[in-house]
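anyone seen this seq b4? input:
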Amino acid sequence: MLSDRERSQFSLIEQGLVAGDPMYVARCSALGRRLRRVEPGAGPRRPRTMHSAGMVPTLLLAGGLLLLVLGGAAAAVPIVVAGILMAMAALGLALTTPQRARPAD
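predicted toks r here
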């Protein structure tokens, strides 16, 4: 939580931004509305997780992170780069894979 002093400073910054660059504020507002948009008739969205993406992206991410750690410990740049690329591929795959329904807890 912000204190009263911090809230007033934040408000002054917002006012200055609105007065100084209204196009930037309009673009940010439009982006925020687009990100929060929910399809009509759809219930509230659950956040995407690696678990709901499936086993392949999860294992790919774990392997990429393992390569990052091992490459960092061995000071081997190619292994670190491979780990970064593997982790990025896992996250991209998880983002594009349709979500599976999670079992009820």
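The radius of gyration is 21 Å. The helical segments are 4-20, 22-36, 50-53, 55-74, 77-96. kinda curious what u guys think
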